[in-house]
Q: What sequence folds into this?
């Protein structure tokens, strides 16, 4: 007799329907033994049981009502299970294996029920073919829908993690500040991954050193921490304090090896490193910390510290994807932290070098009163090569210098130091401003050739000005540098910029510089500066120069007060570029401090010069210097009469020292030499050198000046 397979299956389905819960439990037990990882999460276990029960209900309905198994929709619990598995980072192979194992187990249950329905030995075989065809169609249909749900959830998970990584790239490393970068890492970690994040850096790293890798117990400093709870009460170590982890502990091993790790902290099995002190144990127990990620902060093969991610409010355990995400965020932060520490070290070194190369104190001079402000640039820009100098010259004159080296960092600071030294050396030769800049241009070109650099890589601008308090004449030349501003008279009134021709920057070679001279009344205010002072972030150079004129023209109680007012008005915040402001208030030497005698070519001029000198010293109350000064004047005037050219003059200047100057129209310079026993000459300059504090020769447009300087008596 022919077997009605559909009738038998329908009968079995009706008989099994009241027992789907019990049957689902049996199926879950079989699948759970084969795929245990799916049941590590409680909510997944509940969904799996419900999913199996709904699958049984679906299959029994298909059999009972004769529906098409290939058109059935997967039950909601099955879709939720696949989605949640993807969110937990489960493998899709676990999902498919669960379907296969469930399919086999369900077929076994049906075959058992069919065997109980009749003693006919042909019945199981006849029913098996139809049942297998129906079950495969159903599994193909529902597993495909579950896989699609899994992929959608997985894509959303990956997209969210990609967004987290992008957000971390946008928010971490916004400044070259180590502490701020670490805090940004902690904040991003709490908002997207954990309930509590701490960032510890090795003390050696903060000291700009590379820490040793062979230490088990390393000293760390808590740099940043953040929590979902206000005030991060979970914290045991205060921010800024140092601490250590036991050798071999999770954090210590992560720092030492550079390998991230994941820990599950059970209430009855707290790791030793998490409970190495009572405060740590209480924090873990009181706040229910159950998950931890250890992500080392390594950059360029050097350990910097560790970032630790904890969960206590979120019951979901960390998975491998969470560990990868934490490591990705930590790795990005480590690069920024390393950049910040390297920059901080370089900036500190460059700034210290620059400060040591600049004048330590601008003192009061007889020719001018000075005040100066040097403002290094902000953190992102780096220290540039701006410099200034105030150099005393012969004849009571003073040289004022400002310059700016192209570039930033240690190289710019070192180049600035070399140029400043070169300017001081050339100034000691008493060159005219244009001649000094010509020689300085040669120095820069020589530096380019020695270092193999292009002209735009080693270049600088410089303004060199010389003020003579006797003639009140200021001589200046510019090599690509902005011209100074001046307020004539009493130092208050309308400010204007000196009209002069600006030469090319240093390092181009072959182009001339030009000296400009202007007479400044006593009490005039001269302002030399670099472009960083007038080129702020929100100001164009023209507007900056106009503001400088306005601020410079307002009177002030002192030069220091005027400096502060100009800096506050032009640079209210941290400048984007180095800025130098050098103010000089000119002074003049009146007739009571300067006297001049015209010299003829007759030898009798020597006696006349001695008498003139002793009379003037008596009027100045310097009788103690009469003998030495008379000898100096005799030797200098004698040299001029023998070897010089007319016109010739003798000038005595009383300032902070006594200066004797003899000028003539010849360009030849005397030289100090060692006279032999029987030589009749050659001892005059030796006497001058022994009797004076300093002596020398400077060349002018009309000839030369031989000068000797003596210290005044203490009384």
A:
């Amino acid at each position: 007799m022919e077997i009605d397979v559909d009738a038998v299956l329908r009968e079995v389905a009706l008989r099994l329907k009241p027992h789907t819960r019990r049957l689902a439990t049996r199926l879950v037990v079989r699948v759970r033994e084969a795929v245990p990882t799916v049941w590590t999460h409680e909510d997944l276990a509940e969904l799996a049981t419900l999913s199996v029960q709904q699958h049984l209900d679906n299959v029994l309905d298909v059999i009972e009502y004769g529906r098409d198994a290939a058109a059935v929709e997967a039950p909601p619990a099955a879709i939720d299970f696949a989605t949640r598995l993807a969110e937990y980072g489960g493998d899709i192979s676990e999902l498919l294996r669960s379907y296969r194992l469930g399919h086999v187990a369900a077929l076994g249950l049906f075959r058992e029920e069919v065997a109980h329905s009749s003693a006919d030995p042909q019945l199981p075989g006849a029913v098996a073919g139809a049942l297998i065809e129906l079950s495969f169609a159903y599994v193909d249909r529902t597993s495909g829908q579950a896989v699609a749900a899994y992929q959608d959830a997985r894509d959303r998970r990956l997209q969210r993690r990609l967004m987290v990584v992008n957000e971390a790239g946008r928010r971490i490393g916004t400044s070259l500040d180590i502490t701020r970068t670490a805090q940004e890492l902690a904040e991003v970690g709490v908002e997207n991954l954990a309930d509590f994040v701490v960032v510890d850096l090795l003390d050696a790293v903060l000291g700009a050193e590379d820490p040793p890798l062979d230490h088990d117990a390393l000293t760390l400093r808590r740099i940043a921490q953040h929590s979902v709870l206000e005030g991060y009460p979970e914290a045991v170590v205060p921010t800024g304090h140092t601490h250590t982890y036991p050798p071999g502990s999770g954090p210590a091993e992560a720092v030492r090896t550079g390998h991230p790790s994941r820990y599950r902290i059970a209430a009855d099995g707290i790791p030793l490193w998490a409970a190495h002190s009572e405060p740590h144990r209480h924090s873990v127990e009181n706040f229910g910390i159950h998950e931890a990620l250890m992500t080392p902060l390594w950059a360029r093969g050097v350990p910097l510290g560790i970032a630790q991610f904890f969960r206590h409010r979120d019951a979901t355990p960390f998975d491998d994807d969470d560990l990868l995400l934490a490591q990705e965020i930590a790795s990005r932060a480590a690069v920024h932290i390393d950049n910040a520490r390297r920059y901080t070290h370089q900036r500190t070194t460059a700034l210290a070098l620059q400060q040591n190369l600049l004048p330590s104190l601008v003192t009061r001079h007889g020719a001018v009163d000075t005040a100066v402000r040097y403002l290094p640039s902000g953190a992102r820009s780096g220290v540039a090569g701006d410099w200034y100098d105030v150099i005393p010259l012969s004849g009571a004159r003073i040289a004022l210098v400002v310059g700016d080296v192209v570039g930033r960092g240690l190289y710019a600071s070192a180049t600035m130091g070399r140029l400043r030294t070169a300017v001081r050396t050339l100034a000691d030769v008493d060159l005219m401003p244009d001649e000094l800049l010509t020689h300085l241009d040669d120095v820069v070109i020589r530096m380019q050739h020695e270092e193999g650099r292009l002209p735009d890589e080693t270049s600088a601008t410089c303004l060199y000005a010389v003020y003579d308090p006797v003639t009140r004449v200021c001589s200046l030349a510019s090599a690509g540098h902005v011209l100074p501003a001046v307020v004539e008279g009493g130092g208050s009134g309308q400010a204007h910029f000196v009209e002069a021709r600006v030469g090319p920057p240093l390092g181009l070679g072959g182009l001339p510089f030009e000296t400009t001279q202007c007479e400044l009344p006593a009490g005039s205010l001269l302002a030399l500066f670099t472009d960083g002072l007038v080129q702020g972030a929100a100001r164009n150079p023209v507007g900056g120069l106009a503001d400088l004129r306005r601020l410079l023209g307002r009177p002030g109680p002192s030069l220091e007060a005027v400096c502060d007012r100009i800096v506050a008005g032009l640079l209210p915040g941290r400048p984007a570029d180095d800025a130098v402001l050098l103010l000089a208030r000119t002074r003049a030497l009146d007739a009571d401090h300067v006297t001049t005698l015209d010299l003829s070519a007759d030898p009798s001029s020597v006696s006349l010069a001695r008498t003139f000198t002793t009379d003037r010293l008596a009027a100045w109350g310097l009788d103690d210097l009469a003998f030495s000064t008379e000898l100096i004047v005799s030797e200098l005037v004698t040299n001029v009469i023998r070897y010089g050219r007319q016109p010739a003059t003798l000038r005595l200047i009383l300032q902070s020292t006594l200066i004797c100057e003899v000028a003539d129209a010849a360009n030849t310079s005397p030289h100090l030499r060692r006279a032999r026993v029987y030589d009749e000459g050659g001892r005059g300059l030796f006497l001058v050198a022994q009797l004076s504090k300093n002596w020398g020769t400077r060349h002018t447009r009309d000839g030369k000046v031989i000068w000797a300087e003596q210290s005044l008596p203490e009384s």
About this structure: The longest helix spans residues 123-171. Residues 678 and 684 are 15 Å apart (CA to CA). The first strand starts at residue 196 and ends at 202.
